[in-house]
Amino acid sequence: MSTHPLYQQGQREIAEGTDEELKRSSLVLRDLGLFLAPLDQKIEMLARTNPTIALIMTMPGIGPVTATTIYAEVGDFGRFPSPQHLASFAGLVPSQRSSGGSEHFGHITKTGSKYIRHVLVEAAFRIRSTTDDSLAEFRERLKNGRNAQSVRVALAHKMLTILWYMVKNNTPYQPDFSLRTVK
Fold first, then answer.
1. Side-chain half-sphere CA neighbours of 143 within 13 A
2. CA-CA distance, 49 to 39, in Å (whole number)?
3. Is the pLDDT at 71 greater than 90, yes or no?
4. What's the pLDDT at 1?
5. pTM of the full structure
6. Where do the structural domains in the chain lie, given as residue ranges?
């Protein structure tokens, strides 16, 4: 079945169909949307009136909910002496094992704020190569030999690093900003 409950055609097909469970689920989705709409409006209003959240939203892929989540979790960006400290707080740094003279880096630590990590990986997913932006270029460069999830996590780390510089310098995102701040 190619029915998609979020589109009008799909909703019509579900309503006219015989699958009662699908009909109930469709109604739950509709009711949930009605419940969430006023909350989304409040978040958008907060995002427009808070200068730090508005600044965060200048980065591609970041909307009001993502920006508000980042701001709620980080609070004062100044409490992090470097972008690496902020990335560590978000759990977007690789784990490290050392023995003797060798170092081995593994998966991200996932310690710290799971909310920042989640919304930034989702924001990284929204960065597409169709945008004329250095974030998209960075994403394309990383694609060689890496799986999609690793690329998104690396891009999320880069985006968080750029956000630290943006907020620290009170500078809106600029397409070449990531080239100047992060390797």
1. 10
2. 16
3. yes
4. 46
5. 0.77
6. 1-49, 51-181
